[in-house]
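My current task is to audit a protein record that another person submitted. Alongside the sequence sits a line of tokens, each denoting a local backbone shape. Where you disagree with what is written, explain briefly why. This is what I was given:
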Amino acid sequence: MEYDEAAKAVPAFFGLGQMGAALAGRMADSGDLIVSDLSDTARDALQSRGASAIAQVDDLPCQKRIVFCCLPTSRHVEDLLFGAHGLVTRLEAGSIVVDMTSGDPDMSIEIAKKLAGRAIAYADAPVSGGPQAANAGTIMIIVGSPAPLFSTLEPMLLRISSNVTRVGDIGAGHTLKLVNNLLAAGNRLLTFEAVGIAAHRGLDVARCIEVINKSSGRNNVTEVTFPRHILTGNVAQNFALALGHKDVGLARKLLPAAMEEIALAPKILQIMEGALSEYGSDADVNDIIHLYERASGARIAGVARVDERTA
């Protein structure tokens, strides 16, 4: 098979941020792995789980292998691969790059073309579900790749999660991840708005969530975000507002021209831009709740759960 030699080599994983560390950790727990990150602490944490760590690209032995990366943006992926001391200089023809970044599908296609010129294959394989699902081995891995390449990658991706699905050719994984994140962002804002209306009218916020979760309006924000973060006052969900804004911005670029007049994506992006401007690049995506508290004139975050109150 075309990729057998690459699949037999020890894989490498670049990018050990919150998500990357969780994904790489699953791989390290189930077999040999080389990891790399700018952070000494991140590398040390993976070494403690059995991975071999390298400080820089030049330390990676040059051979055919499968390389995974999970970085903030597609620009970071491009720089890792083709920048000064780029990763492509350490990969022999017949290698495979698996991009687990929440990236730009158009850039993915261009990166794949550049890699193909060096006889290196590419697949986009972003994930959805958060570090908690990654640690549990249940995160959704959304793959865009030719079918034969997916057959080679699937066993290794199953080291990370039992939920692995090929959704199309190169760029399809990133496209579906972006529209998923657009939907998640829309659900978040509309749920904050709906609860803000109810709170403004004097309804008990915790009781509202209890009822909605038994009604047709329930969604991940009412079922997970509110009970776990908003109602408790532990607002941060450890997903940066800046990254959420980036994903919605990329999704907005995918809109067909004929959908512009009826699309919600521009308004979602506008609200997220306002929140980013007010709360800064270090803000959590759930900090947007404070916009709705101010506008509704009602407290929403940090109210006690119904079943924790006393009369």
